[in-house]
Amino acid sequence: MKILLLATALLTVSSFAASDAWTSKDGRTAQLELVKTTGEGDDLAGEFRMKNGKTVKIKMADLDEASAEKLQTAAAALVKEDDTAEAGAASVFDDIIDGNLVKLDGKKLKDCKDFAKPTKYYIFYYTASWCGPCQQFTPSLVKFYNETKPNNNNFELILISSDQDE
Fold it and tell me: What is the pLDDT of residues 27-86, one digit of tens each?
């Protein structure tokens, strides 16, 4: 069980993009991940993800000189990236996730509407060779994987077996 928890923690940590230090004009610094940019010129702003997962929009005019320059450079790089990427490339998981995410709020599950769309998905499949329903489901999962994985590098399937060595 400890190995499972460690593996899950490592995969979760590795799925987050690196954050960077951004400084406001008044000297406050925060570790934020730039998600996207909006606007141009004086209206340029960045949408940043905080450590807690929430996003915040910061105008370039509110950043110090070094951070403003970093935002301009990132905006130019993102435009190039968008130009070379497929226009409107959607994930096969968008329809599945849309409207189906929940989060724990106290002791109740509530709809999660303010989530940041991940760039990579991890599917954890818990199974055992002695489990009848698992034996029935696994072939369809293998078929899904073989059909979907070659064209999508945005997900990984992780098999977790509860079989024990004899």
Answer: 998 888 888 888 888 889 988 888 887 888 999 899 999 988 998 888 887 765 554 444
Give the CA angle between residues 71, 48, 97 to the nearest 5°. 135
Distances (CA, A) of 114 to 46, 48, 57, 99, 132: 18, 14, 14, 11, 38
Q: Which residues contact 51 (CB under 8 A, 6 or more apart)?
A: 19, 31
CA distances 133 to 62, 125, 128, Å, are 56, 13, 10
Please indicate, yes or no, whether the overall pTM of this predicted structure exceeds 0.90. Answer: no
- Within 10 A of 77 (CB to CB), how many other CB atoms are there? 12
Strands 55-59 and 45-49: antiparallel
The parent domain of residue 71 ranges over: 19-84
d(CA 163, CA 121): 25
CATH label of the domain that carries residue 52: 2.30.30.700
